[in-house]
Amino acid sequence: MKNIAIIGAGPAGIEAASILASQHKVTLFEKEERPLTNIRNKAMLFPDFSSAEELADQLEAKLQHPNITLLAQTAVTGLQRQDGGWQVTDDKGGRQTFDQVLLTTGYRVFDASRKEELGYGIYKGVITSLDLEKMVKEGRIVNTMGDTPKQIVFLQCVGSRDEKSGNNYCSKVCCVTAVKQAIEVKKLSPSTNVHIFYMDLRMWGQGFEEMYRTAQEEYNVRFVRGRISEAAATYDGRVQLKAEDTLMGLPLNMNTDLLVLMVGMCASDGTQQLAKATGIDGLYGFAQSKDEHLNDNLTSQEGLFVAGSCKRPMSVNDTIQDARSAALAML
Amino acid sequence: MKRYWNEYQKEIADDRFFYERSCIRQTFFPGSETAFLNILRNDLGKDVYDSSHQHTCSGIGYHADVVPFETTMTVVARLFSLMTERGYENYVPSCVTSFGVMTEIIEKWNESPELLEQARQYLRKATGREFEIPKNIVHPSDLIYKFRFDLKEKMKYQLVNRFTGKPLRGVEHIGCHYAKIFPKHGIGNAEFPYVLAGMIEAWGGEVIDYPERRHCCGFGFRQYLVQENRGYSVANSKKKFESMEPYEPDFIVANCPGCAMFLDKWQYTIAEMEHKTYDKEGYGIPVLTYEELAGLLLGYDPWQLGLQIHQVQCESLLNKIGIPYDPDSKYKGADGQLLAMPDKPSVLKV
To answer: pTM of the full predicted structure?
Structure first.
């Protein structure tokens, strides 16, 4: 029986722990009070609109295993090789040595206030996809005055595929998340007009293309290919947008009650810190696997494994599959 | 919430400046450049050199595509040679287009040293002069911004409405060539430039954040150089006025010669064309340069600052601040004799 540390109790960490616990002793470190924060922040999951809370509950139930110890509110502050194993130091003064370590420190969303021209944190009517998710979860879509919005505009690729913010990569899940959220808005508030500004729509997963079509045909969501260059508050508390419709080749101005910024996925602080400390830091602060084809859960460091969105942007279901793959590699 | 643009600062020299005047500012705002020199020299005790041998930077021609880059580069090199010959290293061009042109040229010289050598050869061949690249090049508004709190201590007035006790509400407008070409060279970057906003806030006023805050004033060279295009110029200004109108600004302050001019004079044009003014009383919104604003608060005489030359008259603002003025001296020359009385607009009140 090996002694294994898993850092990060998100879907990847929990799924891997539940498999590894069948043969090994697993200690799961989680800096938050409760696991699965990112999933619990969501209302529904694409593409089947299943409940995020239910999935989180099902995953959390897997922690009820005698071989799993969850150390909540415990942030790992140090990770280094020692005597053929890995010494883990945490912010509570704990120091333990493990045979293997699995990094599942995940992602954080892009800080939208870095895109100054879009006014997040300055104008109340500019929110992020995370903020909208909370509204959907509460079952009420409202503008800054607390009324039903006449218009909501989504903007894709905020902090993704963006040289100015230093993130050239695609965050992979924002396209379909915007389509999902647009449908959720229309379900909750049918009178609200919804526009989605995109660069190109990357409907890569099963059922995604169908969602995209449904959004247009059944919910009248309007898709505009173009970028929003500037957002500003109007005198009546709405948001004025300046944009370019790149299919029409025309500039356009429009006012909206809410501008929803589809914020991309960045390496979490924990991912960046631990990947760097162990020499497995890759592009944009994400953790680098040994190779992406045959050894995507191994790293250049023996006994140190990686899974989920600490490596790159990943959907929830891909994260769970990747965690299973990591567990197989560690067994 | 972290406000990232506050981190966009730049190095601004502390003293010993070579000042370059603007081609057009002395016509439209005849007291501004003198006020700047007086503020720097007399109120702040700085060394500023104002050369009598200076000339255009050719920026308007360059941006209108009638002066080639090589010529502009050589003309700018001559201006730098004047600075070098007088032993200065810090260059302060009055006009934001000069600031933009020079910043662009220095960037190009840094990127392509062969262009710098070419400029040296052209200047040597044409004039026999040599030059050094300025160690520090900033716009005069950067200097007033840098010393805004020092100036505040010397100011007689604040941007406060003496009748209500509330801060006066100002629209600030940044010239495109100040921060939009090279955002890193503008205080506060291009999206939320802080150079003028910082002055307004430091001096007791409140900055209006209106939807068309970043929109062009209408001075775009292609819009006004070609007479047939001037409708675009008016349309741009009109768009801004309509956007700022609900916020009831007490004044507009700008750091670009063209912006201050058009935001001032197009108010008259729009009033004549559409019988529309953008304040409640029909006088228009006073437009000031940052030197005029600083000068007024320091206690400079409004007529010495040249405010009577503006299209929109400034008395409404003077009254709100409580700055005394002599109406009878408004149109008198330095010798105390009446110069002439201007014609009155048919709509805009004066």
So the answer is: 0.90
B82, two tokens: 């004047």
Q: A315-318 — which CB contacts under 8 Å span 24+ positions?
A: A315/A46, A315/A172, A315/A173, A315/A205, A316/A11, A316/A39, A316/A45, A316/A55
The enclosing domain of B164 has a CATH number of 3.40.50.11810
Cβ count near B346 (within 10 Å): 9
Q: Do A234 and B214 touch (CB under 8 A)?
A: no
With contact defined as beta carbons under 8 Å apart, do B286 and B317 qualify? yes
Say yes or no for a CB contact (<8 Å) between A116 and B191.
yes
| Residue B213 contacts A where some CB pair is shorter than 8 Å | yes
The CATH number of the domain holding residue B128 is 1.20.1050.140
Total number of domains constituting chain A: 2
Asked if A122 and A260 sit in the same domain, the reply is yes
From B4, B209, B213, residue closest to A114, measured CB to CB = B4
A271-304 pLDDT, tens per residue?
999 999 999 999 999 999 999 999 999 999 999 9
The verdict on a CB contact (< 8 Å) between A240 and B2 is: no
In chain B, the number of structural domains is: 2
Interface of chain A toward chain B, CB-CB under 8 angstroms: 111, 113-114, 116-117, 121-122, 230, 232-235, 240
Query: Model confidence at B223, in pLDDT bands (50, 70, 90)?
Result: confident
A1–chain B nearest CA distance, Å: 48
Please tell me whether residues A214 and A124 are part of one structural domain. yes
- Both A52 and A145 in a single domain? no
> DSSP character for A114?
G
- Looking at residue A98, its pLDDT comes to 98
Model pLDDT, residue B224: 80
Q: Which residue has the tokens 């603007």?
A: B22
Q: Are residues B310 and B169 in the same domain?
A: yes
CB pairs under 8 A between A and B: 34
Tell me the average pLDDT across B276-281.
96
Q: What's the token pair of residue A114?
A: 């870095």
- Does residue A148 contact residue A189 with C-beta atoms inside 8 Å? yes
Q: If you average pLDDT over residues B111-127, what whole number do you get? A: 97
Q: Most distant CA pair in chain B: distance in Å?
A: 63
- Determine the structural domain holding residue B321 and report its residue range: 157-329
- Give residue A202's domain range: 112-265
> CA A266, CA A247: separation in Å to the nearest integer?
30
Burial of B197 (0-12, 13-18, 19+ CB in 10 A): buried
CB contact under 8 A, A232 and B211: yes
Q: How far is B299 from chain A (nearest CA, A)?
A: 34
What pLDDT, on a 0 to 100 scale, did the predictor assign at position B86? 97
Q: How far apart are CA B240 and CA B261, in angstroms?
A: 14
Question: Which are the contacts of A294, defined by CB distance < 8 A and separation ≥ 6?
Answer: none
